[in-house]
């Protein structure tokens, strides 16, 4: 492990232009990601949590270069991906893979599992020989806990958990350094979620993988992450190692999120205090002034309406964007 | 408190190309007045079909209720005519669905969708129905209700739509509300708002509630009693406290142990349930959970275990080896 991070995201901004109004007259700008910076070290898992529309998926898509950022830099192994053209990017695309939430819509229904896994090996020239490729497919299936005969099945013949295993095998086929896991277990049944999480952890240990784990489930993120970033309306509001973030959250939004998660224990729930946030996430078309969280914040004061709080290092390694922290 | 709803030996089947799916397979349970009961299980366990069966909304011709009784206030809903059933739906038993956008009519205003039920079921005139609609929106915490009445579902956020669904469900003051994954499509902070609202309203208005969910946390906080379903059958039932503290079915235990919890020390590894949920067209002859069960013995593959008492307080379990789980804690 070296000191240089595998990935460094600097001041990432992604804007989308939208048309509003009945006839699509007025154009507006949504800043889905608004100045996000973080690093991921080799072999580490960074959790990225937040509610729908907070920009966590867009951040992942920018890293994958599926979206071209409006501004900012994405340094992968020291190289700024935003400065590369398509040809130069191709070499990097292999090294950064993705696992999607819904394995069903991300697997070609007309291809067998074997074909799905063999195709990228051929296209990228990873395993040019056909027989060697078949052997490699078997190898991949075994690594993700599937049986050799699964190679002949179609995605619809598999259960949700098995399909997600295929999605993971496809990502592994490229021998990546970084895998963006975008809600990889949220579409799965509870009893299957734990299987997939254990598998991701095993593969990380075996292949030295680095994960960006995007999810809304705070319990799952706590389990799998080394460090965690919390996003709200396009910004990171808190970033810390797992233990500090969950034991001593500094941002009022993080605290509210944690208190909103019900715990499967009736006796504990009966005595637990919870902060129920007022209102809803504002439209990113018209974000609030000052701190974007102030209209819902239980502890907001007058200056929160005007001042945009910077992400500050409050304690070593524990960052929060709150004037009161 | 007597039983408001009593489901007896309900069997609901679907005919598919792969064979007959016994989605609900000889299931009995009940809800007392003002009580909140949960039906917990994973996809395909039959929990949603149970609710649809009560409303008699199982989609034919593939789906059919083949046996059993659904006694609501002592009357068997399965014996009612379609006309009589229409008076029960919305008026006496209301339903809240998971995805409010697909259950609201996109081309009718919010106001119209609320007043329709009031006019049909309660025979209210236009003006009183409108006044009641404003009250209902205010009750579920929608700000500026007068103006909101003229809007359409697409102008509401996900959380607002679910509030609207709750307002519709409460409109005719039903005795029972069936809530099918009412907060699954919502964000955590909105989920907390909606659940608190439902709990508060059902208590204040004295309605009983059936919550259908896969989320064990939601159940722990909101249910008085819990039914755990697996492969079309109830495998365990008890008070929420009993089920969580001393589960007596290996599936319940497995579910509780497989989820990471915010309040526990960090674990090196999660303990998943092995294998996959069964194919309902090809259920094994014995206990449907046996192939995935860590407690299975020879008998489990041959004989279906009946639901029998394992402790006081109505705690029942369908497991031949339930006694072996007696000393095992839920976490």
Can you put this structure into words, describing what you see?
The complex is a heterodimer of chains A (325) and B (331). With 325 residues, chain A is an alpha/beta fold. Chain A is 32% helix and 24% strand. Chain A has helices at 56-63, 86-95, 113-123, 130-143, 160-173, 190-207, 218-224, 242-247, 252-260, 266-271, and strands at 7-20, 26-40, 45-49, 71-76, 79-80, 96-99, 178-182, 210-215, 227-232, 235-241, 312-315, 318-320. In chain A, the strands form two sheets. In chain A, strands 6-7-8-3-9-10-12-11 form an eight-stranded mixed β-sheet, with helices on both faces. In chain A, helix 4 packs across helix 5 (160-173) and helix 5 packs parallel to helix 6 (190-207). The model of chain A has no long low-confidence stretch (mean pLDDT 92). By secondary structure, chain B is an alpha/beta fold. Helix content of chain B is 31%, strand content 23%. Chain B contains eleven helices and twelve strands. In chain B, the strands form two sheets. In chain B, strands 6-7-8-3-9-10-12-11 form an eight-stranded mixed β-sheet, sandwiched between helices. In chain B, a hairpin with a 2-residue loop joins strand 9 (225-230) and strand 10 (233-239). The longest helix of chain B has 18 residues, at 188-205. The radius of gyration of chain B is 21 Å and the shape is globular. Chains A and B meet through helix 5, helix 6, helix 7, helix 8 and helix 9 of A and helix 7, helix 8, helix 9, helix 10 and helix 11 of B.
The proportion of residues in beta strands of chain B is 15-25%
Taking strands numbered 1, 2, ... along the chain, how are they ordered across the largest sheet of chain B?
Answer: 6-7-8-3-9-10-12-11
Q: In percent terms, what proportion of residues of chain A is strand?
A: 15-25%
* Structural class by SSE content of chain B: alpha/beta
Residues in helix, % of chain A = 25-40%
Shape of chain A: globular
């Amino acid at each position: 492990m070296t000191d240089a991070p595998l990935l460094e995201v600097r001041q990432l901004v992604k804007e989308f232009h939208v048309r509003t109004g009945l006839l699509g007259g007025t154009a507006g700008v949504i800043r889905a990601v608004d100045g996000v910076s973080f690093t991921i070290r080799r072999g580490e898992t960074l959790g990225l949590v937040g509610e729908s529309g907070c920009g966590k998926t867009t951040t992942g898509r920018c890293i994958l270069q599926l979206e071209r950022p409006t501004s900012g830099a994405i340094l992968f192994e020291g190289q700024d991906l935003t400065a590369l053209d398509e040809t130069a990017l191709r070499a990097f695309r292999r090294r950064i893979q993705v696992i999607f939430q819904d394995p069903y819509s991300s697997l070609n229904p007309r291809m067998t599992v074997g074909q799905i896994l063999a195709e990228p090996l051929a296209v990228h020239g990873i395993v040019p020989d056909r027989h060697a490729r078949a052997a490699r497919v078997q190898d991949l299936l075994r690594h993700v806990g599937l049986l050799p005969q699964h190679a002949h099945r179609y995605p619809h013949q598999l259960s949700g958990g098995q399909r997600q295993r295929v999605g993971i095998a496809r990502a592994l086929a490229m021998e990546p350094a970084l895998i963006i896991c975008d809600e990889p277990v949220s579409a799965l049944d509870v009893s299957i979620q734990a299987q997939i999480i254990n598998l991701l952890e095993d593969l990380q240990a075996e292949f030295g993988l680095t994960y960006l784990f995007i999810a809304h489930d705070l319990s799952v993120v706590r389990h799998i992450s080394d460090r965690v970033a919390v996003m709200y309306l396009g910004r990171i509001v808190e970033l810390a190692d797992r233990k500090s973030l969950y034991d001593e959250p500094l941002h009022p939004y993080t605290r509210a999120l944690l208190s909103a998660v019900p715990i499967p224990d009736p006796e504990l729930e009966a005595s637990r205090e919870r902060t129920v946030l007022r209102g809803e996430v504002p439209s990113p078309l018209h974000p609030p002034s000052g701190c974007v969280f102030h209209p819902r914040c239980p502890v907001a004061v007058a200056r929160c309406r005007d001042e945009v709080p910077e992400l500050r290092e409050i304690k070593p390694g524990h960052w929060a964007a709150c004037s009161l922290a | 408190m007597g039983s408001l709803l009593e489901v007896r030996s309900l069997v609901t089947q679907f005919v598919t190309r792969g064979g007959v799916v016994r989605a609900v397979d000889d299931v009995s349970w009940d809800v007392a007045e003002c009580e909140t009961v949960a039906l917990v299980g994973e996809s395909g366990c039959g929990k949603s079909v149970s609710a649809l069966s009560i409303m008699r909304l199982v989609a034919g011709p593939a789906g059919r209720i083949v046996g059993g009784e659904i006694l609501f206030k002592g009357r068997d809903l399965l014996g009612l005519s379609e006309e009589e059933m229409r008076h029960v739906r919305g008026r006496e038993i209301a339903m809240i669905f998971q995805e409010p956008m697909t259950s609201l009519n996109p081309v009718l205003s919010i106001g119209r969708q609320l007043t329709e039920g009031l006019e049909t079921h309660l025979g209210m005139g236009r003006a009183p129905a409108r006044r009641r609609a404003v009250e209902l929106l205010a009750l579920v915490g929608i700000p500026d209700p007068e103006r909101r009445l003229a809007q359409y579902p697409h102008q509401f956020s996900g959380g607002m739509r679910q509030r609207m669904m709750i307002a519709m469900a409460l409109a005719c003051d039903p005795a029972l509300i069936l809530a099918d994954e009412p907060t699954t499509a919502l964000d955590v902070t909105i989920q907390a708002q909606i659940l608190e609202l439902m709990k508060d309203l059902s208590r204040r208005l004295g309605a009983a509630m059936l919550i259908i969910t896969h989320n064990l946390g939601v159940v722990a906080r909101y249910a008085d009693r819990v039914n755990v379903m697996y492969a079309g059958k109830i495998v365990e039932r008890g008070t929420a406290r009993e089920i969580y503290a001393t589960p007596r079915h290996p599936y319940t235990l497995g579910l509780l142990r497989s989820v990471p919890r915010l309040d526990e020390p960090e674990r090196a590894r999660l303990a998943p349930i092995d294998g996959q949920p069964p194919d309902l067209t090809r259920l094994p002859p014995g206990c449907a959970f046996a192939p995935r069960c860590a407690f299975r013995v020879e008998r489990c593959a041959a004989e279906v275990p009946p639901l029998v008492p394992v402790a006081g307080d109505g705690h029942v379990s369908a497991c031949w080896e339930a006694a072996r789980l007696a000393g095992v804690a839920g976490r």
